[in-house]
Amino acid sequence: MMRWSRGAAATGLAAAMTLLGLAPNAAADPELPADPLNVDNFAITSEVPTLAELDAQIRLLVATPAPDWVKADQLEGGSRAVVVPKMIYRVGFFRPPKGSSVVTGPETHEPDRHTAVINASRQGSPTVQVVAEWRRIDGRWKLASKSLCNGIKTIGLPIPCNFE
Fold it and tell me: Which fold has domain 6-155?
């Protein structure tokens, strides 16, 4: 039986984030956390979120083993909505080595609402495109609950959409 210590889990998280491009280059993208082990400080607080910031947030949600509370901080539905990225991560749909995701345009922007397209793919399946919305709540951009509901329907997850 293998036992995980906090250090082993942190090392695994750091390795996963590095592989996913979440270990940010502070000079290239100052909005991302400088320390990949300190994901609890990840927040998109810029006036207009960039595609790179939104992409990093989606990767944090579906392609890393970040703790539930860290993921909840990224979601409009908070802890009620964590079940969605948690299941997507566990199944491994959109994370290496067999899957990936990227956030692209076209984008729309209003003061407290931003949209972009999440493109997610997995080996042997066509790319899934979901027009996603982020909402600015208390100065932070969070993935909207209705976007999670659209994702659930698009990929056919057996999760009720009751976290709005």
Answer: Nuclear Transport Factor 2; Chain: A, (3.10.450)
